[in-house]
Amino acid sequence: MKTSREHPSMVDGEVIGNVEVSPNHFRLTLRLPGTFSTPSPGQFVMIRDLERREPLLPRPLSVYGFHREGGYAILVLLYRVAGLGTSLFSRLRSKAFLNVLGPLGRGFSVDCDVRRVILVAGGVGVAPLTFLLREGYSQTNASGKTQTTAYVGARTAELLTGLDRLESFCDLRIATNDGSAGHQGLVTDLVRSDLNGCNPEETFIYGCGPAAMIRSLGLLVRKTAIRCEVSIEERMACGIGACLGCAVAITDGKGLSDYQRVCKEGPVFNILDISPVFFSNE
Ligand SMILES: Cc1cc2nc3c(=O)[nH]c(=O)nc-3n(C[C@H](O)[C@H](O)[C@H](O)COP(=O)(O)OP(=O)(O)OC[C@H]3O[C@@H](n4cnc5c(N)ncnc54)[C@H](O)[C@@H]3O)c2cc1C
Ligand code: FES
Questions:
Q1: For the CA of 45, the nearest ligand
Q2: 54-102, pLDDT tens digit by residue?
């Protein structure tokens, strides 16, 4: 079952929190008008500070949390400072306003009949996967019907972010490149060792992280019949399917390539549909 899509809208959101949760990683909480549609897990928003001329284009960020409170919609985002736009976001204080367009894109499928859910996150890739877990699988997890394991990787221990919101909902397995926390090596090494014995029909893998991680995950999944959806990133201008700036090569079942817009047909895709061309720009 694909999650439903409600209508996007453009609203002003008031900053009610912008906390540095780990070095250069911030959790931003915005209060939006109650008319803002409820996002599905995997959807994203485009945000921009209208007070500034630069950067001109809004920046896409995945929904990390969402709830309704006192007639408002409360949107939570988790972001890493990557360049000018996110650096400016990191300086925002309470009572500042940001322009928010969303919810956008096509999110993850949720299958409440699966017994094993595997989340594979690199860095801030935990954001959409945490929202997926909370919105899509919290009930089946609580009833014991689903068993969920989250595999989270980062370069170093201090760059592991968002673990607090995950660990109350699932088993957590950590990998760091330098071994400063958990397994030393790639997060996909951990996943590989645990995939043996998974019943493909009862398992669903979800991933979000750097392109290199998605590529490794794809190589693993190809050897199994396990369903796997991943959220991918591409530079975006409009976020609504109009400019074609975010098109990526996607293959159909017969191996033929076509282009699809990450902001409209994605950002979530079946991992087997992502063409190797996507990874060639790493
Ligand atoms: C659907 C989607 C969801 C995303 N969700 C999150 C999220 O939840 N948290 C988060 O921290 N980041 C997320 N990103 C990435 C985020 O949008 C970029 O890091 C941000 O736009 C960078 O803007 P900037 O002005 O700070 O950096 P820039 O100065 O524009 O760029 C700095 C560096 O980041 C790279 N970059 C810029 N935009 C993107 C992009 N869209 N994808 C990949 N690399 C990019 C540039 O190539 C450059 O190397 C998401 C991207 C997409 C497409
Ligand atoms: S960002 Fe314009 S079509 Fe996707």
A1: 1
A2: 888 899 999 999 999 999 999 999 999 999 999 999 999 999 999 999 9
Does this model's pTM top 0.85? My answer is yes
Nearest of 236, 34, 38, 9 to residue 101 by alpha carbon: 9
Ligand 1 pocket at CB < 6 A? 44, 55, 59-62, 78-80, 82-86, 124, 127, 233-236, 262, 267
Helix crossing, 187-195 with 211-222: angle to 10°? 20
| Cβ 125 under 6 angstroms from ligand 2 | no
Instruction: Starting at the earlier edge strand, list the strands of the sheet with 203-208.
Output: 183-184, 171-176, 147-154, 116-122, 203-208, 227-231, 268-270
**Which structural domains are found in the chain, ordered by start?**
9-104 (2.40.30.10), 116-232 (3.40.50.80)
